[in-house]
Automatic annotation (TrEMBL):
Pfam families: BTB. SMART domains: BTB. CDD domains: BTB_POZ_ZBTB_KLHL-like, MATH. Signal peptide: none annotated. PROSITE patterns: BTB. PANTHER family: OS08G0495500 PROTEIN (PTHR46672:SF4), OS08G0495500 PROTEIN-RELATED (PTHR46672). Pathway: Protein modification; protein ubiquitination. This is BTB domain-containing protein.
Length: 328
């Protein structure tokens, strides 16, 4: 039997397998054919009924990110005039093995026939969680472009590709790019646009940040910060975001600091909220201390806060306490 007997012809979303005669063989499996991100197989097995299977080729991609397929499959037989059998449309079925889609055809088929598969959609699990994403869906090109651009930016930083500025942290240096820093921060842009020492010397001194915190800041600016790195350096990043007017980073820190207020950090966060004008964080810390009565659980820390805290902030706390007593 020639090789063409196993070949599947394809377009971007359509696959057709032409079978001349199955009478001499009870089982046949097609060559692999590519649709979307995966290689696929069709197979037929003739017993009392004809079993048609569609499945992706077993690979690491299939194991880790199996396709979720929507398709229409038909069998068109030439014997006795053109006869077409259509399986009900398959919607969002995950296909991992050769048993995940089996079509049992009880109608006798003889002579030449065609198995025709039209893929309506192919989805993969979303890397961000939630609903699966179509590989052909709206926004896919944009998502791929964004992901590639971020990966390239990260490489520019980690591999020091054509760097032209040096960041001096308190205990180390990082090579970076003026254009990237200027695009992310109006403060950096102003530094490099005017005849300031940063422009002349090609250095930026960030002496109030450790090298680890400064690296976290650069990783955020270049789009490659990890969640753990962000959590560890939140307060330092908040300070830098306020100093360099990086509004999205400031808001990200604000949102994160709201999530895990407890007795050990509430006073520090209250002071940060007042210093950096974070009203929701300030209100949440006040509620934790006053409405929930936690101020009585941290008497030693609160006494230290009274000794060195901002006078206006201390007055606000006492005002909240007095209001709470009135309503008790």
């Amino acid at each position: 039997m020639n090789d063409s007997a196993y070949r599947v012809d394809t377009t971007s979303r359509l696959a057709q397998w032409r079978i001349d005669n199955l009478s001499s063989c009870s089982y046949r499996k097609s060559d692999p054919f590519k649709i979307g991100n995966w290689n696929w197989h069709l197979s037929v097995e003739k017993n009392r009924v004809l079993f048609v299977k569609l499945y992706p080729e077993i690979s690491n991609l299939t194991r880790e990110n199996p396709p979720i397929a929507s398709f229409v499959i038909r069998v068109v037989c030439s014997a006795g005039g053109r006869k077409s059998l259509i399986h009900p449309e398959i919607t969002d079925r995950q296909l991992k093995s050769n048993d995940d889609f089996v079509w049992a055809i009880e109608v006798p088929l003889t002579g030449k026939f065609i198995i025709d598969v039209e893929f309506l959609d192919l989805k993969t699990a979303s890397p961000e969680g939630g609903d699966p994403c179509s590989i052909w869906g709206e926004g896919l090109t944009e998502r791929r472009s964004n992901a590639t651009a971020l990966s390239s930016l990260a490489r520019m930083l980690t591999e020091a590709i054509h760097t032209d500025i040096t960041i001096n942290a308190s205990d180390g240096t990082i090579a970076a790019h003026r254009a990237v820093l200027a695009a992310r921060s109006p403060v950096f842009r102003s530094m490099f646009a005017h005849n300031l020492k940063e422009k002349e010397l090609s250095t930026v001194n960030i002496s109030d940040m450790s090298i680890e915190a400064c690296q976290a800041l650069m990783n955020y600016i270049y789009g490659s910060i990890s969640h753990d790195e962000f959590i560890v350096h939140r307060l330092a990043l908040l300070r830098a975001a306020d100093k360099y007017d990086i509004s999205d980073l400031k808001e990200a820190c604000h949102e994160s600091l709201l999530e895990d207020i407890d007795a050990k950090n509430v006073l520090e966060r209250l002071q940060s909220a007042a210093l950096y004008q974070l009203p929701r964080l300030k209100a949440s810390c006040m509620r934790y201390l006053v409405k929930f009565g936690k101020i009585y659980d941290i008497r030693d820390d609160f006494s230290a806060f009274l000794q060195c805290g901002d006078r206006d902030l201390i007055a606000e706390v006492f005002h909240e306490v007095l209001n709470a007593w009135k309503g008790f």
